[in-house]
Amino acid sequence: MVTDHYTTEKEYKKFTEYVFKWAAKLVPGYEVRLSFTTEDEDARADVEIDELAKTVYVGFGRKWSNKPTNAELERTAFHEICHILLAELVTFTNKFYNEEFTDAIEHRIIITLETLTFGQNKRINNT
Ligand SMILES: [Zn+2]
């Protein structure tokens, strides 16, 4: 049985640490801002990118399907930062292909990077 877990301030702080850790490594030119909310309330996390301002807004979901471990928090932070890393390519590619297609390819790349970095994921992660 799946029960929802309402994320805590402590989990949000840990997630924030991981976001800054991976942003410094993968997208050092961006200013990163965090919020304890997501546009889609069922998302574990999300990201919005302002290319012109070189600013990104990373949201941490209030509701997860499970209580996240630190490993899951880091993997989710890494996932969102990878979206920033690939953002320019995705914007360009969306001019020629439909968004569903580019999103599928983008996620295939991100999942590969996740697996290389953290090992195989036991859960499906589609944030
Ligand atoms: Zn994603």
Sum this structure up briefly:
This protein has 3 helices and 5 strands.
What can you see in these coordinates?
By secondary structure, the chain is an alpha+beta fold. It has one domain (5-118): Zincin-like. Helices cover 49% and strands 17% of the residues. It has three helices and five strands; from the N terminus they run E-H-E-E-E-E-H-H. It has helices spanning 9-26, 70-93, 99-118; strands at residues 5-6, 31-35, 45-50, 55-60, 63-64. The strands form two sheets. A three-stranded mixed β-sheet has the order 2-4-3, covered by helices on one side. A hairpin with a 4-residue loop joins strand 3 (45-50) and strand 4 (55-60). The mean pLDDT is 93. Bound molecules: zinc ion.
- Helix count equals 3
What is the fold-level CATH name, i.e. the topology?
Zincin-like
Bound molecules: zinc ion
Residue runs with pLDDT of under 50 for 5 or more positions? none
- Helices and strands, in order, run as EHEEEEHH
Distance between the termini: 21 Å
Radius of gyration: 14 Å
CATH architectural group? 2-Layer Sandwich
- CATH secondary-structure class: Alpha Beta
How much of the sequence lies in strands comes to: 15-25%
How would you write the strand order of the largest sheet? 2-4-3
Overall pLDDT level: 93
The major pleated sheet works out as: 3 strands, mixed
How many domains make up the 3D coordinates? 1
Determine the structural class based on helices, strands and strand pairing: alpha+beta
